[in-house]
Amino acid sequence: MDPINTCYNVCNMSQAIISLLNKTKIDKSWSFSDKTRKDTAYVTHGYHRYPAKFIPQIVSRLAEKYTNEGDFIVDPFGGCGTTLVESKVMGRPSIAVDINPVAVLITKAKITAIDPIKIEKEFITFQKRLETYNEKTKVKAPEHERIDYWFKPEEKRKLAFIFTEISKVKDQDVQDFFFCGFSNILKNCSIWLQKSNKPTRDFEKNPSEPIKTFIKQIKMMLRGNAGLFELLSEKGYLKIPSKVICTDARTIPAKDNSVSLIVTSPPYVTSYEYADLHQLTALWLEYTKDLSDFRKRFIGTSYHNKKDLILNSALAENIRKELLEKDKKTAEEVSTYFSEMNQVFVEMKRILKKGGKTCIVVGNTSLMGVKILNAEVFVEQLQNLGLKVADIIKREIPSKNLPSVRDKETGKFASITDKNKISAYPTEYILVMQK
């Protein structure tokens, strides 16, 4: 094979992908800017805060367009379960995987419609138990320096009491429901800086009172559960299979050629460290005792060891070379990310039916002045694996949940007042690729 011709063909393909995405105009209908917080948090979607989550309307529109009732949908980066909830509401069986046990807990709670009479009865009993708490109540509080780092003694004691009471609940679905609520109040009840997604302490903060906050949280979730139960009952979808598994996105428990649609929003290489963001829940629920070990489980984090990397993309190789001139460590992190994403795409191709589609919601960013063309790299990797472009959708992100600026020197998320700030994710792509 002539290396010059090979290089010419590869370069041409890379340029064609860049050109295709550059020419893609913003489709305003995909921004769903008319949707209110109530619309995007309907049924169980509002159970738990979660960073950078995509809105349910994206999933439902893609599922409506590319699947029929009964078709099998998968999300390899399940996050807080948006794809699964929408699949169930639309009568599509679904599976999600996520390496983060906190995400799995949230998803289990969100996809499980519990009979409202049963859960409300359980909650009345539970609330009575909580109201017995006083300063003489015997409480076994966890001994962990990281919990003490975040929680004042009184809040810690009350949270330990709530935790112990939840642990006594025998019904697994009800226990998951309560633990999901418990997880969502931890930030408010800690000295974590309230408006920050970064783990920052605010010593002036007056933490929320745990028992009242928990009761209020559960009452909100009861309304969401009742809404989901009613909706699924009306449609006859209560028994539609929906499952989340705590595992790596490269080992999806689905048969070869069995999936009609994949809808997913992968983690960003430069984005949130989910381990840091979810450390409060991970520590309280004993998903980890060691935060540094917890961090190493995630794709798209800074904590992976260097391995033999297959990027499967000339664009990714070019990004790597540009970053090497700036900083070797960052170059290795980004290379590892693209290599691992390529492995996920191999797994996605395996499970997709012929004609099945994968829809990847992703934005581009920059690090140290180098453009990180996630969307273009993903298209090239998927094309090199034999998938073809079915559609490219470009959408504006009106979400207030996603920080919009980062420091142009470090690439880390910055405050709106930072003099080095640059726009991070004003738009994103939905890459629709077909097997």
Low-confidence stretches: 1-8, 400-406, 413-418
State the total count of DSSP E strands.
Answer: 11
Alpha carbon gap, first and last residue: 27 Å
Q: Can you count the helices?
A: 16
Q: How much helix is in the residues?
A: 40-55%
* Protein structure class: alpha/beta
> At the fourth CATH level, what is the homologous superfamily of one domain?
Vaccinia Virus protein VP39
Q: What strand line-up does the widest sheet have?
A: 3-2-1-4-5-11-8
CATH topology of one domain: Rossmann fold
Order of helices and strands: HHHEHEHHHHHHEEHHHHHEEEHEEEE
Oligomer state of the chains in this structure:
single chain
Rg over C-alpha atoms, rounded to the nearest angstrom? 22 Å
Overall mean confidence score, pLDDT: 89
The biggest beta sheet reads: 7 strands, mixed
Shape-level CATH architecture of one domain: 3-Layer(aba) Sandwich
Give an overview in words.
The chain has a domain of 246 residues: Vaccinia Virus protein VP39 (Rossmann fold, 3-Layer(aba) Sandwich), CATH 3.40.50.150. 44% of the residues lie in helices and 13% in strands. The protein has 16 helices and eleven strands. A hairpin with a 2-residue loop joins strand 6 and strand 7.
